[in-house]
Fold this protein.
Amino acid sequence: MNPLNGKLAEKLFTDVAKSLSRTQKTEVVICPPDIYLDKLAKIRTSKIKIGAQDAFPGEVGAYTGEVSGEMLYGLGARYVILGHSERRALGETNVEVNKKIKAAISAGLVPVVCVGESVRDEKHEYLKFIKAQIEECFSGVSKNFISKALIAYEPIWAIGKGALREATEEEFREMSVFIRKILSDKFGAGNVSDTGIIYGGSVHPENSLGFLEHGRANGFLVGRDSLNAKKFEEIVKITENLK
């Protein structure tokens, strides 16, 4: 729920847009709260695409307080974050995320699906947890759409004030290979070769190069540093210069 008002949201968006004027190879997507989508979509540039932070798992109807994928698309959104750890902490299940993925695809939105474990145990039970997340979230999704999806791995134990420590580049790389193997088994290797796997665990300018270069991340789901135009610009520049 940031920034706190429309003026701050517009300033942040404008500052970021100015800083990315020379960006050529890096795709940048801004996902603001829904109430800012209409205004930001009208001032967006060719360097920035618009996304949403969540979407209702169904079509338009009598669902007070909800926002459908069709509505978000109509406002200019082309991406939507689904299954974020903060949504899951409120009780969102894999079954609900699955419905949202299908609804988002139907509405023409690219789903950015978040997966991640809260505990990394020595017996590697967390691998079973991640596998179940992916299989349940993508149950019934056509193989024709999986290449367009993005998978954001966000280790919950490495995020926010309660973080135990930062995840390493090697840990992400291993998890990325594991995630792609699960997707390949489910949809076929040829269908998931273009599926992006991005990192979303406390991304900042100091660790972004390592995750791109050594972790082989296809990009980032930036949290806290997305509210700082200079830090966000630096992350984008690092990504741009590496490609």
Q: What stands out?
A: The CA atoms of residues 169 and 214 lie 6 Å apart. The two ends are 32 Å apart (CA to CA). The longest helix spans residues 169-187.
